Amino acid sequence: METIGHHTVEDRGNPDHVENHAPFKCESKTAYLTDGYYFWDNNLDLAHLWGEIRIKKPYMICEAKLTLDESILLDLVGNRGDVLYLEALITKYGLHQLDLAGVIRYLVDINKKEKGAFEYQAIRAVDMNLSEHYKTLKFVHSKRGWTNLNAAIFICLLTKSTVLLRDLRIIYPEEYTS
């Protein structure tokens, strides 16, 4: 799978540093999946929203090409098989009491001891909590069913690799673009 990733960072007036060193690793206790390099999956609007509601001060947005082969991507959005596999791992290791971030942290750690237990280098998920930013479209006017045209899909790279990540550049604010 190839996609465009948008990475939002605080603007500290250092665009050269950002272009040379981004993406920056999130190591927060509240990271949604685990420690990693987070990108919005081809969604510039949500990258701006993240800057406004989470950074709450001037921010930059970097854009990069992400190449995520299905053998290294745990896709919890577009691959039902991956969802079932994750559920099987949760059962195998008795992780039902953990949140998703705890499950992923556990699996990353267990892979250090049991090689092959969890060899993914990237995880793709959707945040269902941003419903006020949904762009909905009904399937049929006479029915209640609808789809979301602005799903809050994000990608967490567990490793910073040029195999996964290419051509990173700042695209916002305009003063840093060339």
Describe the protein's architecture and organization.
- The protein has one domain.
- The two termini are 28 Å apart.
- The model has no long low-confidence stretch (mean pLDDT 92).
- Helix content is 26%, strand content 29%.
- By secondary structure, it is of the alpha+beta class.
- It is built from 4 helices and 9 strands, in the order βαβαββααβββββ.
- The radius of gyration is 17 Å and the shape is globular.
Itemize the secondary structure elements and their pairings.
Elements (H helix, E strand, L loop, with lengths): L1 E9 L4 H7 L15 E5 L2 H12 L3 E9 L5 E3 L4 H13 L7 H14 L8 E6 L8 E3 L7 E3 L3 E6 L7 E8 L6
Parallel strand pairs: 4-5
Antiparallel strand pairs: 1-2, 1-3, 2-8, 3-9, 5-8, 6-7
Question: Looking at the structure, what is the overall shape?
Answer: globular
* Spatial separation of the terminal alpha carbons: 28 Å
Strand content: 25-35%
- For the record, the count of structural domains works out to 1
**Number of strand segments:** 9
Biggest sheet strand order reads 4-5-8-2-1-3-9
Question: pLDDT average, as an integer?
Answer: 92
Poorly predicted sequence stretches spanning 5 or more consecutive residues = none
Helical content band: 25-40%
Q: Major beta sheet, specifics? A: 7 strands, mixed
Kindly name the structural category. Answer: alpha+beta
What order do the helices and strands follow?
A: EHEHEEHHEEEEE
Tell me the radius of gyration.
17 Å
How many separate helices? 4
Region (Disordered): 1-20
